[in-house]
Amino acid sequence: MASTFFGLNIASSGLYTYQTALNTTGNNIANVQTEGYTRQEAVQKASEAIRTSQKYGTLGSGVETTEIRQIRNLYYDVKYWNNSTSLGEYSTKSYYMAQIEDYFEEVNKDGFTAAFDEMFNSLEEVSKNASDVSVRNQFINSAETLAEYFNSLSTGLGNIQKDCNEEIKNKVSQINTFAQEIASLNKQINVVELTGENANDLRDQRALLADRISEIVPIEVKEGRMAESSPGVGETGATTYEITISGQSLVDTFEYNTLETVPRETRVNQSDMDGLYDIQWSNGLDYSMSGTGVGGGLKALTDIRDGNNADNFTGKIGAFGSAPAEDGQAGTVTTVRIEGTGFTDINKATLPETGTIVLKNKEYTYSSFSYDSASQTYTFTLTETVDNASQAAMQGRDAKVGEAVDYLGIPYYMSQLNEFVRAFAGEFNKIHQTGQDLNGSQGGIFFTGEDALDSTREYGLTVQAGENGTTYSSKDDSLYRLTAANFTVSAKLLEDPKLLASTTDLSQGINGNDVVEKLLKLKSDTVMFRGGYASEFLQSVLSDIAVDAQKADSFEANYSNISKSIVKQRLSVSGVDSDEEALNLVKYQNAYNLNAKMITVMSEIYDKLINETGV
């Protein structure tokens, strides 16, 4: 049978319950603008009824709050993370492609077009008065201005590559920090929730960190119950929380793995900046950015920094040989011939002079390479010997230098610049060397590459099949070593304009200009670069940039719109609605007041019972 004062217990349970509901509502209102906050609600249920031993059966005992829970839907979280990864990738690409595009367009106004036209206008003046030293000097200076344009453009692209490289390091550092914080939060959440409470605020912090990681790399999140290690004991009540990146574990409840950036010892592409970072797990496993479904800001940065249009050096392993060790070392080293490559023109090669080549999935360092134009094969000189058994096992297997990154990034645009200056310098030098200067001597190299360590060396020799042999070495002073970064006019011509060759036969007069006339045709009459004329160089490159920039902008806009839609859906479930919370305030206040009124009524009843019903 229920106590006489049972009604007070019922009313007081209502007071406590609706006070909790009011406090929860107040917390929601206080956090209406808090980033990552998830709306909470006080879950109520009727208290356990008591038996009264009366014919009416059991009697309700009031109400109780069972938990303060979050209103959150994992489905919208997963949608948000997936879209956030794509948005992070294309927003990053849009940002850097805009830099590349702006840089090319900016220098187009006062750069290539102006310098190129000025050079050929000055050359036109030379054709009119070839013996005038001042006219010659003006032309040579304008040619140097064109070379400086390419130097500046190469420097600018290199700076963008460096920026991407540093940003990669920052992104990796952020991932590691977020992983550490999530692992720490997992411990705190389990400590709280093992007491039977919900660690809602800690869960909000954890979910916000997962949001941040999803902008950088694609993630998968799994949460479940933790089983007791002892057989037959069952679950502990603790939860597991795992985050994986492309199938590799980043966070495993209380443990986490970290990524690290390791500077490359050698370049992958000829014009790469020094010290570019490779990413790997701290446990030594490789971190792949080329798998299916890989995206995010980190993927975009590596695409911009390393994108070579999937045109890295590949081939099949042919015969092995041996050669004396280089750099004065004793003994011999192994050489390996690579066949069936796509680089049949060494002037289009992007191979670094020294680097790392992968032979049958194993890396070897090479100190130099040569190209045989007759057989179209490359021979690499390795820095170590390879035993006969390994050589036999590698015959006919794949070889490669670098990775195929299917994006038009900095290495691609660097290779386009190098290809143009080599083609232009090669044709210009070839014609110039057929003429005679004002001293009656044969014309020398006009455009060359400046050696940072030896100013007497000139990179610009137009070695071709049938001329001085058919083998090109990476150590030769050939066009291969001429790049947009070191492109310049020969120092001899800068010092003495008389060395400019203007005619094939000086005996016909010092104003002979047949060589100059041939040089003038290089502007718009000679197919030189990607099936077009030299004057169309910048237009060709800008068309590549425009396509990728427009694609990045378009996808960024699309994923941004999708993100807004998902955020609205997410907020419709998890967000705090001020109007709804205001209504809840009134609702819970009225319920609280009614329970208070119940206590007042019961007090009057008990007063009558105790004070006025005595015998």
TrEMBL record:
It is found in: Bacterial flagellum; Secreted. Signal peptide: none annotated. Residues 569-611 form the Flagellar basal-body/hook protein C-terminal domain. One of its GO terms (biological process) is bacterial-type flagellum assembly. GO terms for cellular component: bacterial-type flagellum hook; extracellular region. It comes from the Bacteria. SUPFAM superfamilies: Phase 1 flagellin. Its main location: other. Keywords: Bacterial flagellum, Cell projection, Cilium, Flagellum, Secreted. Residues 97-314, 356-447 form the Flagellar hook-associated protein FlgK helical domain. It comes from Anaerobium acetethylicum. Pfam families: Flg_bb_rod (PF00460), Flg_bbr_C (PF06429), FlgK_D1 (PF22638). Transmembrane segments: none annotated. GO terms for molecular function: structural molecule activity. PANTHER family: FLAGELLAR HOOK-ASSOCIATED PROTEIN 1. Belongs to the flagella basal body rod proteins family. This is Flagellar hook-associated protein 1. Residues 8-38 form the Flagellar basal body rod protein N-terminal domain.
